[in-house]
Amino acid sequence: MRFISAEEIDKFVSPRDLVEALRKGFSEGCEAPLRSHFNMERSNEDDATFLIMPAWQKDGAAGVKVAAVVPGNSARNLPAVSGTYILLDAVTGQPSAVIDGTKLTTRRTAAASALAADYLARKDACEMVMVGSGAMAPNLINAHASVRPIKKVTIWNRNGDKARALAAETATLGFEAVGTDDLETACKSADLISCATLSTEPLVRGEWLREGTHVDLVGAFKPTMRETDDALMQKCRIYVDSFEGAAAEGGDVVQPLNAGSISKSDILGDLFGLTRGEVKGRQTDAECTVFKSVGHSLEDFVAAVAVVDAVGKAGK
After folding, report:
1. Which Gene3D superfamilies match (predicted)?
2. 110-296 — its CATH code?
3. What is the tens place of the pLDDT at every residue in 121-178?
4. Which of 19, 120, 133, 306 is the Cys-Cys partner for 157 at CB 3.0 to 4.6 Å?
5. What whole-number distance in Å separates Cα of residue 82 and Cα of residue 68?
6. Could you write out the three-class secondary structure of 151-205?
7. For the chain, give me the number of helices (H) and strands (E)?
């Protein structure tokens, strides 16, 4: 059995590699039941969430991710999301690989966002705003830059020092990167806004969007969480990673649905439809679009197979 570390994932699998693996995966599909998640009560901090996400191919391999989301980890300088992925042999069902699930999750989540942006963001999108500066942020920046000519990145976080620290790190990769305390001004000039927070209140507002902006919503994976207001969802053409997941779990979709601000018919498509050509993405340079993801077992499974293949080809 092979053990694959976070360092090996980053060394042998590029952001674009995972985008293309997910494009093929969503187009072909696999068996992936809606994930099971359980609330883990905490006495002195926000509750944690325990996740189990299985997936498999007919007559093929299978896998499962076991993960935990612990909001309080930010105070411990640890990732909010951690986990392990176990890949099972296609013939025997025996474990064939154990993969660092924390790194796999951040990389596949970012790749899914970039895949959506490849259908929904303007082709010339070059100015990005990153809302949040946790473990997801650098992965999202690199993934989006693999599908669009991102040159400038403005980073906002409630803790301004953390935003500026990530901006300094991002600048070493060749981007023009700055930290900001003024999210509104940053959003008003952005081509692409990516949010990766655990916020329970809107951070980005519809009135801030200029024509042609694409909004990528990665955080807020519970119905009680949200990163945008109803006005933004009304202003944008809405897409999701999967209909069943986003409509049941993503607060940015669930809350405006419950309020009557949007209807299910306003959700125009998901990654299955986009990759299969069944759904149209961006139609004009002027329209605003939004992509809401809550995570899908297919993403972990496809990414795990891609990682194992890449590491194997490298002779490791």
Report:
1. NAD(P)-binding Rossmann-like Domain, ornithine cyclodeaminase, domain 1
2. 3.40.50.720
3. 999 999 999 999 999 999 999 999 999 999 999 999 999 999 999 999 999 999 999 9
4. 133
5. 6
6. CEEEEECCCHHHHHHHHHHHHCCCCEEEEECCHHHHHHCCCEEEECCCCCCCCEC
7. 11, 14
Q: List CB contacts of 16: < 8 A, sequence separation 6 or more.
A: 146, 147
What predicted TM-score, i.e. pTM, was given to this entire model? 0.92
Fold classified for 2-104+298-313: ornithine cyclodeaminase, domain 1 (3.30.1780)
Strand order in the sheet with 48-56: 2-4, 95-100, 81-88, 62-69, 48-56, 36-40
73: which 2 tokens?
Answer: 């980890």
Question: Rounded to an integer, what distance in angstroms lies between the CA atom of residue 94 and that of residue 88?
Answer: 5
- Which tokens hold the place of 251? 């607060």
For 314, list phi and psi in degrees, rounded to 5. Answer: -80, -5
